Amino acid sequence: IDEDIVRDNERLGFFVHELRNFIHTSMVAFELVKSGNGDIRGLAGDVLHRSLLGARDLMSRSLAEVRLTRGIQDHEPFLVAAFIDELVSAASLTADARGLTLTVGPVEGGVTVDVDRHLLAAVVMNVLENAFKFTRPGTTVTLRVGVSADRVVIDVQDECGGLRGADLSGLFHPFAQRGADRTGFGLGLAFSRWATEAMGGRISARNLPGVGCVFTVDLPRC
To answer: Is the pTM of this model over 0.90?
Structure first.
């Protein structure tokens, strides 16, 4: 059997499995609220909210991956500051639902990149989701944008406590998992690497022992 067909079937299977889990959890939470045993403003509402956000992000990532696999890219120059503002609006909801704080540093005005906006949004959201998943409860995830003469660098730092003796490059391999939370199949960071490289950029991670990890998306500046 062709390896591409096998890989596509695996991805489809993982997508269906993850989406089924999100829908199942949403239905359980909804039934609790409907029966009067759960409060939409309490735990049941929080679970329903997280599940719907997870399904939304899964579908966004999957659509972006289809575009990437088919070689479809719509490069356009756009302002980084406006792009980050749009992303943060959605990401803040996810952070709030998990009881986390998302902080965003100032972004220099007038800076543009010329890449596929949808792919970049999927990449940065994947990196943020990874940070939300592994940072310690009640901590802060920080997004910063650095600018040089020819590069734009997006850093996402969590407070997971750091990784001991880990080969961080391995985190970008398909199905790689870290930490105790094994939800998902470890495809998000692998997709982020494929998409970033397809846009002429690079993605990396560095460990801050005792503090957390920093994931960096490095792109050419217009």
So the answer is: no
CA distance readout (Å), 102 to 7, 67, 91, 132: 35, 29, 8, 9
Helices H, strands E: what count in the chain? 5, 7
What CA–CA distance (Å, rounded) separates 191 from 200?
14
Q: Distances in Å between the alpha carbon of 71 and those of 5, 13, 108, 115, 119?
A: 16, 22, 31, 13, 11
Rounded Cα–Cα distance for residues 135 and 82 (Å): 26
Tally the residues of the chain.
222
pLDDT in tens, 163-176: 876 567 667 765 44
Per residue in 52-89, pLDDT (tens digit) is: 877 877 777 677 666 666 666 778 899 999 999 988 88
Element (H, E) at 17: helix 3-35
